[in-house]
Design brief:
The chain is of the alpha+beta class. It has one domain (about 1-140): Alpha-Beta Plaits (2-Layer Sandwich). Helices cover about 25% and strands about 25% of the residues. It has helices spanning about 15-25, 60-65, 90-95, 120-125, 135-145; strands at about 1-5, 35-40, 45-50, 70, 80, 100-105, 110-115, 130-135. The chain has a two-stranded antiparallel ribbon with strand order 1-8. Strands 2-3 form a two-stranded antiparallel ribbon. It has a two-stranded antiparallel sheet with strand order 4-5. Strand 6 and strand 7 (about 110-115) form a beta hairpin. It is globular.
Amino acid sequence: MKRINIDPSKCVGCRICEITCSFHHFGVFSHELSNCNIDSEDALGNFTPLICIQCEERSCVHSCPVEALSIDPVTGAVRCDHDKCIKCGLCIKACDHKGIGFIMLDGEDRIAVCDLCGGDPKCVKRCFIKAITFEDDDAVCDKENSL
């Protein structure tokens, strides 16, 4: 199975991932309406993509009291049934990677979590410096273990 890999040392804060995601999912170019975000310390030049990396723990899924979060059997992506979601925020608190959050859609809070664009993440294709990649699980684990 493949998952998202993030290398903050490569991110320059261009935020192309955010607008690519918002356009693909919502049909608008918006930094606020995106399933990924860039955490920035502009003065220091530090930027970190915050996106669901489809971690092994899936603490967000396990923390949901109404089972609104599940794992797509084909892509392995976390998905949210927005009709079931009670917007309690427990999934956000449970995520150690800061990869899930709220967005405002049509005047209502809504859980924002990467769905891997159906297995072909658009943010990865547009990240020209490869701060966000989509790799086999073994390759990601090897990189994490070498840190």
